Automatic annotation (TrEMBL):
Pfam families assigned to the protein according to its UniProt record, in alphabetical order: Alanine_zipper
Endpoints of the signal sequence: 1-25
Keywords in alphabetical order: Coiled coil, Signal
Phylogenetic classification of the source organism: Bacteria, Pseudomonadati, Pseudomonadota, Gammaproteobacteria, Oceanospirillales
UniProt cross-references to PROSITE patterns, sorted A to Z: PROKAR_LIPOPROTEIN
Protein name (Swiss-Prot/TrEMBL): Gamma-glutamyltranspeptidase
Coiled-coil residue windows: 34-68
Native species: Pontibacterium sinense
Length: 93
């Protein structure tokens, strides 16, 4: 992404200097467009970083939820074994 951002001013400079017939109003307009493109690219990069951070947080939350679910399952299985053992002992008496 950063390499693309670095290319924008170079392309604009090449266009501006390559066109000898360009008047100053056109140059200003092209510079404004280039600045807008850079601003939008920077904003998009910031949004992408924010989305990545949120995805990482969601991944951590999902991992914690999975661990809690495994612990609950282990507890249920232990309780089932205890209940079955108590039932079998009561039936033998």
């Amino acid at each position: 992404m950063k390499s693309h951002l670095a290319l924008i001013p170079l392309v604009v400079a090449a266009l501006v200097t390559g066109c000898a017939s360009t008047n100053s109003a056109d140059m200003v307009a092209m510079q404004d467009m280039a600045k807008q493109a850079m601003d939008r690219a920077a904003a998009a990069e910031a949004m992408a970083k924010q989305a990545s951070a949120k995805a990482d947080a969601a991944d951590r939350n999902a991992a914690a939820a999975m661990e809690a679910a495994r612990d609950a399952q282990a507890c249920c299985q232990a309780n089932t074994r205890r209940i079955n053992r108590a039932f079998e002992e009561s039936m033998q008496k």
